[in-house]
Write a structure and sequence with these properties.
The protein is α/β, with parallel strands linked by helices and about 325 residues long. The protein has ten helices and nine strands. It binds iron/sulfur cluster (SF4).
């Protein structure tokens, strides 16, 4: 199964299986199941995997890809390159502002041409990125409406995700984005208030924790949909000691809302400046702890992927 990644945690206690096509992950104890075959051939596990669609989606998707039946046009758009934050580890120079209208028109043209010239494309997926993309929510609205129209015209699927710092993710903006088919959100919270506010600050140096948490609480208590809201925590030497408290706190606030998922990443050196980073990958340990404490951490195995990058990064780390 080429699309199933397998890895063990550093202590060797658990094995993780990750389906790279459908994003499902599963962890089993090596004390209970000595081999992968033992695990996969267990009757109850088989039923569970079937119920949770662990392999079915894979078989379906893999077959389609093999037959070249499914083609997704994935595009990441840096809709606003400035940001209302100045995180201590940020490598951005904030020289550019919002995406200009002629660039937007070129993007529309490119997408139309790609779809016209390739009848196999069945799905358009847009990732909204920045800087802070919500500084240009008008641009997101303008382009999303056009993309949805194009997809309707050609009878292809449309979906999108957004990576936002969450400061402007008010309930009103969230509802607007959901209407524009943004179904996957990534918001960073770097620890409890003291720790988050020491590294994720506004341009004037002010803290941002309270506002982001309040925005998310409103979303959690006021709406229900099938979106995914991933809370990302970047871990470095300054906040690692707060992690256990932070995870418990997030689970207390959002754990009941099945849309919320918690994932962890070592702060990476994506830019030109040297920043303090932790050398060993601690992200997996905190994903594990989240699951143990009753939270969701489905992005767990992305931490083990060998090649990774940042859309706006100035270098690729392999
Ligand atoms: S929110 Fe993102 S783009 Fe803005 S300063 Fe922080 S890391 Fe940089």
């Amino acid at each position: 199964m080429k699309n199933i990644l397998k890895s063990c945690d550093p202590t060797g206690r658990y094995t993780f299986l990750f389906n790279t096509f459908n994003g499902c992950s599963i962890k089993y104890s090596n004390n209970i199941f000595k081999t992968e075959e033992d695990f996969l051939n267990n009757k109850e596990i088989k039923q569970l995997l079937k119920k949770e669609d662990f392999f079915q989606s894979w078989e379906y998707k893999y077959e389609k890809i093999l037959k070249n039946e499914e083609k997704v046009l994935n595009i990441s758009l840096l809709i606003h390159e400035n940001c209302n934050f100045r995180c201590t580890y940020c490598y951005e120079k904030f020289e550019k502002k919002e995406m200009k209208i002629d660039v937007m028109e070129s993007v529309i043209e490119f997408i139309k041409n790609s779809i016209y010239s390739n009848a196999e494309i069945q799905h358009l997926h847009i990732s909204w990125f920045g800087g802070e993309p919500l500084l240009n929510i008008k641009g997101i609205e303008y382009l999303s409406n056009i993309f949805i129209e194009i997809c309707d015209e050609f009878n292809i699927e449309y979906s999108s995700d957004i990576t936002t710092n969450g400061y402007m993710l008010t309930l009103r903006n969230y509802r607007k984005l959901s209407r524009l088919k943004v179904s996957n959100y990534q918001i960073t919270i770097d620890g409890p208030k003291k720790s988050h506010d020491s590294q994720r600050v506004l341009t004037n140096g002010g803290g941002t924790y309270d506002r982001i948490i309040n925005n998310l609480i409103k979303i959690s208590t006021d709406t229900s949909d099938n979106n995914l809201i991933a809370i990302r925590t970047n871990i470095g030497p300054d906040n690692i000691s707060y992690m256990e408290f932070h995870i418990q706190n997030l689970i207390n606030i959002f754990g009941e809302d099945k849309r919320f998922d918690f994932n962890f990443h070592n702060i990476g050196n994506w830019g030109e400046n040297c920043i303090d980073v932790i050398s060993n990958n601690v992200a997996l340990d905190f994903s594990e702890l989240t699951v143990e404490l009753g939270g969701k951490s489905e992005g767990i195995l992305w931490n083990l992927m060998p090649n990774t990058y940042c859309y706006a990064g100035k270098k690729i780390i392999i």
